[in-house]
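Possible regression after last week's pipeline update?

I re-ran a chain I had predicted before the update to compare outputs. Posting the input and the new output here so someone can diff against the archived version. Not blocking, just want to make sure nothing changed silently.
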Amino acid sequence: MAALAATAKHMVPCTCRGFDIDRIREDFPILGAKVRGKPLVYLDNAATTQKPQSVIDAVSRYYAAQNANVHRGVHQLSQNATFAFDEARRKIGAFINATVECEVIFTRGATESINLVAQSYGRTFLHAGDEIIISNMEHHSNIVPWQILCQQTGAVLRVIPIDDDGNLIMEEFDRLLNEKTKMVAVVHVSNALGTVNPIREISEKAHSVGARVLVDGAQSTPHMPINVQELGCDFFACSGHKMYGPTGIGVLYGRAEALDQMPPYQSGGDMILSVTLEKTVYGRLPSKFEAGTPHIEGVIGLGAAVDYLNAAGMDAVQQHEHELLAYGTEVLQRVPGLRIMGNAREKAGVLAFTMDNAHPHDIGQILDDEGIAVRAGHHCAQPVMQRYGVPATTRASLGLYNTKEELDALGAALQKVNEVFS
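New output (post-update):
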């Protein structure tokens, strides 16, 4: 127990005036690194986030002092590991405001969470002629599983279009929605555009025709307060590595009444009540969906990441990143020949852009020479690229430890790109 308390060592004190950015940066060891002799400017947070020392310590402490399987042993190590594992589930449930802890299912990430719903709920309740609605701004992880489900069941995939600024065209959503709609699966925050979608409105409209709602929250959970009750969704997926936690761990929130109706997605140990050679009785939630030895250190590390975010204060994190987004937009708009892609009414910290005289991959390479890490490519969102008629974009994505000085460095490096290709 005392070891668990040590997690707080590197937490950021939350105050009514927000948080101390210098203290926050000190909590992330990698931010002191240099790349090609230049101070690291890490602006690829939509791909993955860096880890605070408290998360690194929590994972190391598990292996050094708690390493045992969970929910199986009567010995002390197993009890300690089980306590830490179950406590992490409680923390994460509170973080997103699940009504009961059993609504929090551990997966490998948002991708597996979406596949779980598609293959368990979808194959059970969707039939030929039923309709699934997604949007034109989805990550591939929220497109391909539904395409596969349509091939398996004969269901039909419908797509909400987006306008030139990256907003969902809600009038088209209204037109698509009908009594055949059984699932609406939409992203909360677009990884390619930064658009923040009106999830509450979407949920209310979908429920009015009896459809379920799944939200891809991979890009929203680390950046703003999440309350799944206010969002009104039936399922919510997120990834630990986007939340300053370990890779290979994620969460599926599901309403208990929906999860209870769904068959297991995978089978094996720890998801059963009893097994004979003739019959298996499955366990209750959440174990029914967590077959085999779980990613124990990942769960514990994610619990530490949630502690960190809670200490920083999600309102303060959102405000800080909002200010950075506004500042970064101004910086980029001063770069000749640069076009920002995605100017939605509600937007989170994603700055995706093209330049007239340079390919995104060339831009990314030059920025790397300056120690600046961004993403160049289609961002696993090829339909977005097709919508805007570009093969790829360069993307700078913000996190709680970024600063205005780093955005100034980005702007200066982009001026160098123009000099190189002029």
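Follow-up from reviewer: compared with the archived run. The chain has two domains: 41-47+313-421, 76-310. Marking as no regression found.
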